[in-house]
């Protein structure tokens, strides 16, 4: 409604004319504001879609903020059904066809490195998907937020040995231990490993063209399991 102040010493006809003129200007302003808002919304929506396309459906508020999209805008997109909230600060654009759990989990913790059976799966050293994903963090790290997965703790000086990057089945890049480090981890913790999974992993690794026996022996020496490794290699 127009907040019109009636001028002093003005005829009623002129006053009415001024009143409707101001109302018309106000209406034009409202129309411009709505059109501008819709234009900005479309622009921001396009930015979010571009981020989703670049990350196989995943959008984070941090990355969107770098491109000028405020966090409150995500609430609107969730309400509209355009986005699905996965975790705090992490969203999924539904039309991309299912979010990448391995990628999302690592967004929550950059220190978590996929290891053991999850690393076997990423390196095609296992023929089945792990029942629960496994990751390794350095001792002293608070991993309480990594619910729904098995977390292993190692000495800080061992943590970075063998860290590499792998592609998930959905094409996202995640951190995992390389094949040699993974084999060493299985040997170190052999008593807690499924014997069939352990045997198949060793066999597939030895048949792989990507294997690096010298690196495997180097890692084994650092972990103090050279004797155990050589016993296994002799049997194979």
Structure description:
The protein has 236 residues and is an alpha+beta fold. Strand 2 and strand 3 form a beta hairpin. The longest helix is centred in the first third of the chain and has 43 residues, at 12-54. The protein is built from 10 helices and 8 strands. The protein has 2 domains: 12-96, Arc Repressor Mutant, subunit A; 101-235, no CATH class.
Give a nutshell description of this structure:
This protein is of the alpha+beta class.
Overall form: elongated
Low-confidence stretches: 32-40
Mean pLDDT: 83
Number of helices: 10
Distance between the termini: 86 Å
Indicate the radius of gyration in whole angstroms: 29 Å
| Percent of residues in beta strands | 5-15%
Total separate domains: 2
Task: Lay out the secondary structure.
Layout: H1 12-54, E1 58-60, H2 61-66, H3 72-80, E2 83-87, E3 90-93, H4 101-108, E4 113-114, H5 116-122, E5 134-138, E6 150-154, H6 156-159, E7 163-167, E8 173-177, H7 179-188, H8 195-207, H9 213-223, H10 226-235
Parallel strand pairs: 5-6
Antiparallel strand pairs: 1-3, 2-3, 4-5, 7-8
Name the features.
236 residues, alpha+beta, Arc Repressor Mutant, subunit A, 2 domains, three-stranded antiparallel sheet
């Amino acid at each position: 409604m127009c907040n019109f102040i009636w001028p002093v010493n003005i005829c009623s006809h002129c006053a009415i004319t001024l009143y409707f003129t101001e109302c018309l200007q106000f209406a034009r302003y409202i129309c411009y504001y709505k059109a501008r808002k819709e234009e900005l919304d479309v622009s921001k929506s396009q930015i979010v879609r571009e981020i989703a396309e670049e990350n196989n459906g995943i959008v984070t508020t941090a990355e969107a903020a770098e491109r000028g999209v405020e966090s409150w805008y995500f609430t609107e997109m969730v309400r509209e059904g355009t986005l699905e909230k996965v975790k705090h600060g992490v969203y999924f654009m539904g039309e991309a066809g299912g979010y990448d759990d391995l990628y999302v989990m690592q967004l929550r913790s950059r220190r978590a490195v996929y290891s053991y059976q999850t690393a076997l799966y990423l390196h095609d050293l296992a023929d089945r998907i792990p029942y629960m994903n496994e990751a390794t963090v350095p001792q002293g790290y608070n991993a309480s937020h990594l619910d729904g997965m098995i977390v292993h703790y190692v000495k800080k000086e061992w943590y970075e040995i063998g860290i590499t990057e792998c592609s998930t089945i959905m094409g996202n890049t995640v951190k995992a231990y390389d094949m040699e480090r993974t084999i060493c981890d299985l040997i170190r913790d052999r008593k807690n490993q499924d014997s069939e999974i352990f045997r198949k992993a060793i066999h597939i690794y030895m048949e792989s063209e990507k294997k690096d026996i010298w690196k495997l022996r180097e890692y084994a020496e650092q972990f103090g399991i050279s004797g155990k490794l050589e016993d296994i290699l002799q049997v194979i």
